[in-house]
TrEMBL record:
One of its GO terms (cellular component) is cytoplasm. SUPFAM superfamilies: HAD-like (SSF56784). GO terms for biological process: carbohydrate metabolic process. Substrate binds at D11, R12, D13, E19, R20, N21, Y22, T53, N54, Q55, A56, R110, K111, K137. Keywords: Carbohydrate metabolism, Cytoplasm, Hydrolase, Magnesium, Metal-binding, Zinc. The lineage of its organism: Bacteria, Pseudomonadati, Chlorobiota, Chlorobiia, Chlorobiales. This is D,D-heptose 1,7-bisphosphate phosphatase. It comes from Prosthecochloris aestuarii (strain DSM 271 / SK 413). Mg(2+) binds at D11, D13, D136, K137.
Amino acid sequence: MASSVRAAFIDRDGVINEERNYVYKIQDFVLLPGVLEALKIFQDTGFLLIVVTNQAGIARGYYDSKAVEELHFYMRSLFSDSGIMIDKIYYCPHHREGIVKKYAIDCNCRKPAPGMLIQAVNEFNINTAQSVLIGDKISDIQAGRRAGVGCNVLVESGHPFETSTRFLADYVVADLLAAAQLFSMRS
């Protein structure tokens, strides 16, 4: 029997918070407008909230995993204060061009690879066909497709992307709130 558990796989930088290149300090973490409302919509319509984020700054030596964990603790507390529970945050510290040797590798978790999503699917018994991925880069969409995610949404609130790549996404919307509203109508 197929699982009925569905997830909203959500990229972090450019989707949840302002894209500022290598956000790891709490003072640089600025929520995008409508994010709390969007997360609440997903949560209230029965989606697990799973954050999947590449954090190449660790491999590049800009910051360490402790800084990422502290930022994620802060982010979760912001959400918790609004009644939102993030079910899990996965991050990839790898980049093959990194300077920190143990992270300077090719891996199966750095998007566009689907490793973080597959790990979540296995941990939570998620039905990928009933799930959604929201990201601001084509690599997010590619990871969702490779993991078998049923709907992959590209948002315009983060990194600019070439118009020619828009066709890779199932939907292109302004931001996370627009994505949540789209799915609340479909639920």
